[in-house]
Design goal:
Distance between the termini: 41 Å
Structural class: alpha/beta
CATH class of the domain at 6-144 and 175-199 and 262-274: Alpha Beta
Radius of gyration: 19 Å
Helix content: 40-55%
Largest sheet: 7 strands, parallel
Order of helices and strands: EHEHEHEHEHEHHEHEHEHHHHH
Strand content: 5-15%
Strand order of the largest sheet: 3-2-1-4-5-6-8
CATH superfamily of the domain at 6-144 and 175-199 and 262-274: NAD(P)-binding Rossmann-like Domain
Amino acid sequence: MDSQKKFLVTGATGNTGGYVIRELLKKGVQIRALVHKIDERSKKLEDQGIEILQGELGDFNTLSEALKGITGVYFVYPIQQTGILAATAYLIQAAREQGVNNIVNMSQKSARREAKSHAAQDHWISERMLDLSGLKVTHIRPTFFAEWLMYFNTVKTGNKIVLPFGEGRYAPIATEDQGRVIAELLVNPDAHAGKIYPLYGPKEYNLYETAEILSQVLGRNITYDAISIETYQEEAPKMGFGPHFIQHISSVAQDCRDGVFAGTNTVVKDITGQEPMGIVEFIEKHRAFFE
């Protein structure tokens, strides 16, 4: 690998960004991390030799500075925030000015023209903007992350999964597997430019089945509290979530019930040469969180 190549990782202190950085380090390339704030997480990256730049995706001058000398970019926009379309426009202009070669874009399985989620529809429009940019662009559309089991502490505190996904089925994919895919797409863009890759774990489950697996692995009874979408909408503001995020989750919960997030494929193995992590392995790996 060309050690002179430098890649920009946005969302660098998040789970997926962290795994992208880990995989890029293995490949011997240089890395610049764009972070929202300087804190312990960014310090850990800096200690690994990562160049740290503080800034916002919604600021054109920041992006222009961040892309100087950059070969390729991993672009992920926070789902909790509005503004992805402006950020995409800023990214495209800055990348063209700075001679960036390629972009790997984190989209989502529900991104489509007719999406009821405003965030999902905006992701679809963001994809189309990037396609028109003249840059080498690859989009990934993961189904629900395996980390959904860890976003709330209800398994540990109440022995239950509490989500509004009904009996919808999906093959949860770990951020670790996504990180491996993204790193490979960044360093070898030519074979993947212009592609859209749905990303899945190895096997579909509904959350009743996932609760049974949790019970078996953890050795205690875990249940699935399949709350209604309306109940989620009532409870989410109490947890500090804003209207944009609540509207998104409410819409994708219905999508999940309608089968939009279902499916499996071999993309992770095809790109990385390694099978994606199964749900049992994921729970075992993060056992300390659930106990």
